[in-house]
Structures are given as C-alpha cells and as structure tokens.
C-alpha cells in the first residue's frame, strides 16, 4: 500500500439526486450536488469525511437531480465550482449567487490539472443546455462518471475506454418504462437519443469500453419508478456473461443507492 491513491465514494445516485466524492492527497472534490446541502454533509459524514474539507464542485448539467444543493454548498463551504459556459448560464437562476472568484469555466472536451488530479471533460447527448461528464486521473488510475446520456457516441467511447473504475448509467428497464404510468411524451424523452441509457444500453456500452485495467463498475442513476437494483444488476451481468465476460472475477459489478453512500473505495 502506498498513500498516494485516488479514493472515491458514490454518495448518492439515481433520478432523485446525484453526488460523487473523489479524493487525492491534494484534493477533495464533489461531482454534482443533487441533494440538499444538509443531506450531502450527512452522506459525507457516513463515509468518515468532513464536508468542510471539500475544495471543489464539478457540475455536469443543470437538471435539479444534479444541482439542487450546489448553490448552498458553494456558498457555505467556499467551494470552487466548475461547469461549462452553457451549464453556468442555464443554472444561474436556479442556484443563486456564487461569488465570482469561485466560478470557473470548464469547457467540454478539455483537460484541467488541479494539482495532483487531472480531469477530462466530455460532451454527452442529453436534453440539457451543454451536458458533459468527467474522467479523473491520478497516479496512473482513472475513474469515469457517465450518466444522463441517450447514447454513447464512438468519440465518448474512445475517450473513456479501459478505465480502472466506472460509474455508469443504467436508468431504466425498457419494459417497465413502457408499461409504467409516465405520460407518453416523457417516455419518449427518456427513450430518445437525448434521454437516458436503459439497462441494456448501459450493458452494451460498458462492454465496448471496459478493458484489462477495469476493476470496478458501479451501476448508477437508476430510475425510482422504472427500474430495480436487482433487475439492473442481473440484466448487465447476464448480458456480459453471454459474451464470456467474467463478471465478479475480472472486475466487481457494484450497485449504488439514492439514499446511502457506497463505501469509500481505493482505486
Ligand atoms: Zn440525472
Ligand atoms: Zn439529466
């Protein structure tokens, strides 16, 4: 064991709110703040970390399940907030005032170095102003977050291939969504190219991008109404096993919760 590692915890994932925590020796950052500041502080507590030690917040897009607590957290804990121009413009009226010196532009498809943490942004296909997700690199290890996308383009697949760890979208079971009570336009939105990845879509995209380095995959952003943890897990693992991929041997397939933090994990 050395002490120069990247550690992560998916604090909350799902259509009701998304927050992920990443730390290196020099940085403690959050990606998205889709719950109240109080709830996020409590989730940090549950993994033995203090919200006061977080220095930066990266935003993916302006949907409320990603920014509900962003303004409060930024002001209360003096966080540096990173988002691209389109997202800043779209969320300005929703998160309240963030002091100028805490506002940073993170353009799509670029890399930023924050000390010992390199962060790559990549655009996705989703019905928000300028949605982008991130890949984190520290000391030879990489962690990709990709949810909220209608499909995974070849360009994105190339950017994120063979990471050590993924938090990946499996939003809905297509049958549950079709048969469920959502109005048809909303169903169409979710199923469309600017919506969300289904369990099958997520499995197929994952099989395209994982590689010999990949050791952990978190299944995330599950719909509360159109999916179940067990179903998502079973769909992905059986589709992979059908392609002779050794789930549970080559890598761990892990679940996430919308109200409970995953253990802090060393990559
Ligand atoms: Zn979302
Ligand atoms: Zn979204």
Proportion of helical residues: 25-40%
Number of helices: 9
CATH topology: Metallo-beta-lactamase, Chain A
**Biggest sheet architecture:** 7 strands, mixed
Residue stretches low in confidence (pLDDT < 50, at least 5 long) are: none
Number of E-type strands = 14
Domain Metallo-beta-lactamase: 16-194
Organism: Pediococcus argentinicus
InterPro entries: Metallo-B-lactamas, RibonucZ/Hydroxyglut_hydro, WalJ/YycJ, WalJ/YycJ-like
Protein name: Ribonuclease Z
Characteristics:
267 residues; alpha/beta; Metallo-beta-lactamase, Chain A; 7-stranded mixed sheet; 14 strands; 24% strand; globular; WalJ/YycJ-like; RibonucZ/Hydroxyglut_hydro; Ribonuclease Z; Metallo-B-lactamas
Explain what this protein looks like in three dimensions.
It is a single chain. The model has no long low-confidence stretch (mean pLDDT 97). The chain has a single domain, classed as Metallo-beta-lactamase, Chain A (4-Layer Sandwich), CATH 3.60.15. The protein is globular, with a radius of gyration of 17 Å. The protein contains nine helices and 14 strands. The protein has a seven-stranded mixed β-sheet with strand order 6-5-4-3-2-1-14. A seven-stranded mixed β-sheet has the order 7-8-9-10-11-12-13. 30% of the residues lie in helices and 24% in strands. Strand 10, helix 5 (154-160) and strand 11 form a beta-alpha-beta unit. The protein is α/β, with parallel strands linked by helices and 267 residues long. The structure holds zinc ion (2 copies). Residues 61, 63, 126, 128, 148 line the site of one zinc ion.
